[in-house]
Amino acid sequence: MKNPVHTISELLTESFEIIDLSHTLVENIPAWPTHSRFGHTLYESYESGDIASHYQLVMSEHTGTHMDAPLHFIREGKAHYGVDKVNLQQVFGKAVVIDATDVPPNGTLSYQKINEWEEKNGTLLGGEIVLIRYGWDKRWDIRPRGNEFLKDWPGLGKDAAEYLVSKEVKAVGCDTLAIDSYVASDNPAHYELLGNEVLIIENLNNLQKLPKYSLFFAFPLKIGSGSGSPVRAVAFVPRIEV
């Protein structure tokens, strides 16, 4: 009898392509203005006579492709918990990609737009991870070229966030700096999603490489009482569309 773990491994390797949805962490990548910037400092090196090489990392919990934990915006109550308490089932599972590349800078993705997507592609069933593709990742770059990524991005409208909560999705991801638009000073999507324990994944990359449906993973670091964590987001895409 075949080892079931071996069988699963063969199935994943032969039947699926892995798509990397994460940005590479290097110095001078885009960062929220009030957050610490990513630093990568050499501490030991072969050239200095050390037997090994290693670097010190300095970064915010919200560096690069990352997850927001509920306590990032929720001050108290049932949803006030950190990334170390996140149920990992919420960031693993069936993902759907909603194309929102027609949403203009500073605009919002509305409930109506999501409803139109459902009419064409099928109703959200609950338990999905919704990935919103604005195409904003093409602006990602190191400073100063990456400064265009840091302004005027579109976001998720309040009515759309409320609808996704009602559909019981597990998480919502985007390829912008934040789930709310650049001009949304009251952060309605953050409060609506995190307040209802729907996780947020920001700064995704390569969503244009995904079909409408895929198998998605984005596991966080287990940071005690962390408000968020960098993630390595990946999707498994069938090699033959069914």
UniProtKB/TrEMBL annotation:
Superkingdom of the organism of origin: Bacteria
Pfam families noted in UniProt: Cyclase (PF04199)
Segments forming a coiled coil: none
InterPro entries the record matches: KFase/CYL, KFase_sf
Record's protein name: Cyclase family protein
